[in-house]
Amino acid sequence: xxxxxxxxxxxxxxxxxxxxxxxxxxxxxxxxxxxxxxxxxxxxxxxxxxxxxxxxxxxxxxxxxxxxxxxxxxxxxxxxxxxxxxxxxxxxxxxxxxxxxxxxxxxxxxxxxxxxxxxxxxxxxxxxxxxxxxxxxxxxxxxxxxxxxxxxxxxxxxxxxxxxxxxxxxxxxxxxxxxxxxxxxxxxxxxxxxxxxxxxxxxxxxxxxxxxxxxxxxxxxxxxxxxxxxxxxxxxxxxxxxxxxxxxxxxxxxxxxxxxxxxxxxxxxxxxxxxxxxxxxxxxxxxxxxxxxxxxxxxxxxxxxxxxxxxxxxxxxxxxxxxxxxxxxxxxxxxxxxxxxxxxxxxxxxxxxxxxxxxxxxxxxxxxxxxxxxxxxxxxxxxxxxxxxxxxxxxxxxxxxxxxxxxxxxxxxxxxxxxxxxxxxxxxxxxxxxxxxxxxxxxxxxxxxxxxxxxxxxxxxxxxxxxxxxxxxxxxxxxxxxxxxxxxxxxxxxxxxxxxxxxxxxxxxxxxxxxxxxxxxxxxxxxxxxxxxxxxxxxxxxxxxxxxxxxxxxxxxxxxxxxxxxxxxxxxxxxxxxxxxxxxxxxxxxxxxxxxxxxxxxxxxxxxxxxxxxxxxxxxxxxxxxxxxxxxxxxxxxxxxxxxxxxxxxxxxxxxxxxxxxxxxxxxxxxxxxxxxxxxxxxx
Length: 684
Description:
By secondary structure, the chain is an alpha+beta fold. It contains 23 helices and 19 strands. Helices cover 47% and strands 10% of the residues. This is Spermatogenesis-associated protein 20-like TRX domain-containing protein.
């Protein structure tokens, strides 16, 4: 095995990120038990480098250091060098990101960690320049400094690293507490509202990230309580993003974040998970107050998914396609080159219609970023004729842009990110009256299930070019549970509800800790350092696996009336509530708690083929309350005996709104149904 340490083995990988480094002179290894065993046998320090395919600064460090023969020779002489794709192995990334932050360093990517031969972290950071710069040592200085220190006092570093791993393992232990109360939700809402930028939207300061789990929680609180500010801050952020440079006004979709406070300058990479969550928020906000701007951005986003993000190299056996992970920020080695313009370039495409375009998309001659133009929208869509003309102009610019060298594309399929996209498409399909979007969601769900689904009901995490490269994590099970439940509510097909029950049961069996909590990794996962089984508790750019799974259990409870689902959801939520001061780190879990205690269900009975049934179904699905669960059952005698709507019937298609085990009188008018649903928060 030791001979493999003397060559770069990444050509055997499927991850586009790892393959980007397959030609480096560094003797990169993939993370595996065999690689770790070889490092121990050779008694060599490990250099772990973690990034992802669309990461701009990962590319910078690769060009400066990993492609440099002298730096590579130093790395090869002193270290066993391991490359990890954080999207493929978020469990490994989470452990070592926590370690680096515990060392007092700011987290981010590329993540650079030096470890003992046993995998215990002893030094870490993010990007290191090739020469000393910005008060940071050069990467070569770091390599030599740590190796020299290890030679002089290896035992001390080994003890320190092992101690840090133990602290990380202890940090993963849960702190159970009392149930979430309305006062807790109100306190977290106030804290979040105090962090907001009420001029530009989003959280104050720069860089600006969408932070979708926070804004999804705030929207839920708006729907639950009628608190105007909680809804207004979501609508404000969406409007500013929809007009700003973070939005791709030609190709659709949003970049991962903006580097400034006004959403002008994006970090140009586009991620599936961001766009999935933003589509969900666009649909919820539009459902509350229809807005041509939000509708346009949602339609453009879905067209981007359909056109550019289908993972066409991994079709399911029936030919259906799931969604790819991301598009890069860079093309031709330059960040944003694919997306930016000069005024002359735009004018050469649009000719005499340049003046009309400039009325809506400002094009200063000097540009608005480093002498170039990032397109922004200065006006709100209002006049259909004008919008049609602008759409034609954008199409011409889009066609011209398609002649450029495209950014890199990471076409691996991730179950968790696909789950977020499928659920968002199902909601958006109802809100924007686009049944073809539901078809897209159904196809993606079928593809993920065929490619990554296991017989026991679990999902693996990642696949590319026919090879599964990572086992499933809690986030995969939870996100696909959300997706499956969304499709059941949208279609009424009992097979989806049965599938959701299997996912839930398999997840509890494989990831449960026996005390109500869940681990990020399954019980049969074995390649993490120190036997650590991390948790998936805190929300980051994506919702936490624990929060998403608690939400799924709560929805199952409202769909079935099952006390077992309610108890499992309550136990999972309670496993995280011991530290009241940290509740704002769990917005998805808090939303699940509100859904469990105060959520409601709309049960629709009657002939499913009757247009009146379909109208009630659409009205329920298109509402703005994310805690409203929809059961298009047709015959309510099919519901379990302990569901409050069991046996309900009416002379014509009708809906019953059920809360706290009590159902309303039947409603046959979609407008009246929308009003009844809105009464929960007093916002009609």
